[in-house]
Design brief:
This protein is of the alpha+beta class. It has helices at residues 16-43, 49-53, 87-91; strands at 5-8, 11-14, 58-61, 70-75, 78-84, 125-129, 140-142, 157-159, 166-168, 188-192, 195-198. The chain is 19% helix and 24% strand. The longest helix has 28 residues, at 16-43. The radius of gyration is 30 Å and the shape is globular.
Length: 203
């Protein structure tokens, strides 16, 4: 193989500028390779998206949720409905138990701290898995009482657009709905007065 340089007195006088260039290039390639190796190693310590989807908690800043408003976030690839209930919304939960399939939530799915008439840890915040317990459609909010689309009896809640299941503002299902049980309540806790953590029970 030919070697670049000038032959003087039987020795090869290598071009110093070329040698420095080759050394620098070799070092650069080595550094890039090391960086890729390090990145792969560090990445192996980072939870994958699939691992996060299997149960990592989701945090929500409750300052985003105005009184009377619902926001939707995601936990375990499920939509989570978070409602900041007003005093009027809470008052509307009384007086229609006879119209519900499971008014006391005995046959429905919720953590022990949400097994109450309001189905929540604190009255003003309702946290639900936002999939209909019939076939998994997404119920739409109809928070105004006496909605003419639903009926004069309506206290406010959700109507499933797929098959007509109806749920009140505690996620309890009305008689005559295809859904047999109330909307599910996920595990959740409050890290602070303004931070909701979905997927983590209180310590």
């Amino acid at each position: 193989m030919a070697v670049s340089g000038v032959i003087t007195d039987g020795e090869i006088d290598v071009d110093e500028s070329r040698r420095k260039l080759l050394v620098a290039a070799t070092a650069a390639v080595g550094a890039v390779g090391a960086a890729f190796t390090a990145a792969a190693f560090v990445e192996s310590w980072t939870p994958s998206e699939s691992a996060l989807a299997l149960g990592a908690p989701t945090e929500l800043d409750l300052a985003q949720v105005e009184p009377g408003q619902m926001v939707v976030t995601v936990w375990r690839r499920q939509p989570i409905y978070v409602v900041h209930r007003t005093a009027e919304m809470l008052a509307g939960l009384a007086g229609h138990d006879s119209l519900l399939k499971d008014p006391t939530s005995e046959d429905s799915d919720q953590p022990p701290y949400a097994a109450n008439a309001l189905r929540s840890r604190v009255p003003q915040y309702l946290v639900l898995i936002g999939t209909c317990t019939h076939l998994g459609c997404l119920p739409k909010p109809h928070f105004a009482p006496h909605d003419p689309q639903i009926g004069a009896y309506w206290p406010g809640g959700w109507l499933c657009p797929c098959h007509g299941s109806r749920f009140d503002l505690a996620g309890r299902v009305f008689e005559g709905s295809p859904a047999s049980v109330n909307l599910r309540v996920p595990p959740y806790s409050f890290a602070s007065a303004r931070k909701l953590v979905i997927g983590a029970d209180p310590a």
